[in-house]
Amino acid sequence: MTPTVTPLSAAPPVADWRDFVALTKPRVLTLVVFTGLCGLLAAPVSVHPVIGFTAILCIAMAAGAAGALNQWYESDIDALMKRTRARPLPAGRMARESALHFGVGLGGFSVVLMGLATNWVAAAILLVSILFYVMVYTVWLKRRTPQNIVIGGAAGAFPPMIGWAAATGDVTLLPVLLFALIFLWTPPHFWALALFVQTDYGNAGVPMLPVVAGERVTRHQIGLYTVPMAVAAIAPWPLALTGWIYGSVAVATTAIFAAMAAVVTFRTSDEGMKPEKQLFKYSILYLFILFGALVADRWVLA
């Protein structure tokens, strides 16, 4: 009698270091680290370079951990979208458990290190930022409401506040305004993106605003959110929290943002998505310029 051969179960995929880097969403990480660094450098105190480097490293690790946990939870919908299907989990290059363990371990280490190296105020805000992105945005909001970006935008607004707290041990009006700026910037930024990738979101069943409410409503919302964003961006100057360097750059760059948003808002032609793509790309540059001006203002005029 021929013995029955039981096939061996498939071995779990073995990811390499590039897959773990991809889990951290490096492109998103760049802006997170930059705004966190600017928050630290704009604080009215001197920070030892080693302490400053450690604080920024912790912000980077925390953001990477949040990105990894986001991809762990959303691997099913990532597989349905063209722009995300090549990520390590939907592409089958990594086991989901590996992403989970990596995200939890990296996040926990970043919070503890931040507390020990700087202060526990910064560590507490860092922890809140991770939990907000994972639990509030990823788990609770993203698949349930078109307001996912509006509320979830708070997760990406924490870095300058964390950087400031790492340097000073407290939070004052300026970092709160920086938080408000990024929070209000997020909807126009992501809805501009959503307008030209809405098919992806629709295929994945993600209720982004263009999918559930249409392009016209989304365009109007971009215009509406640009107004308070502009106020938050310029407010530090008349409130005497910054000097003329930041103020002049804020006025000029925000005027450009508002003009581009107006084109998207009042556009009636549905042919192509060039204005939306231009607004999306400029919105990223806008934050880099604005936060760079904040640091220049602090160090030149101090």
From TrEMBL:
Topological relation to the membrane, as annotated: Multi-pass membrane protein
Q: Which GO terms describe its molecular function?
A: protoheme IX farnesyltransferase activity
Which Enzyme Commission numbers does its entry carry?
2.5.1.141
Q: Which residue spans adopt a coiled-coil conformation according to this UniProt entry? A: none
Question: Which family is it part of?
Answer: Belongs to the UbiA prenyltransferase family. Protoheme IX farnesyltransferase subfamily.
- Miscellaneous comment text of the record: Carbon 2 of the heme B porphyrin ring is defined according to the Fischer nomenclature.
Tell me what this protein is called: Protoheme IX farnesyltransferase
* Source organism per UniProt: Sphingomonas spermidinifaciens
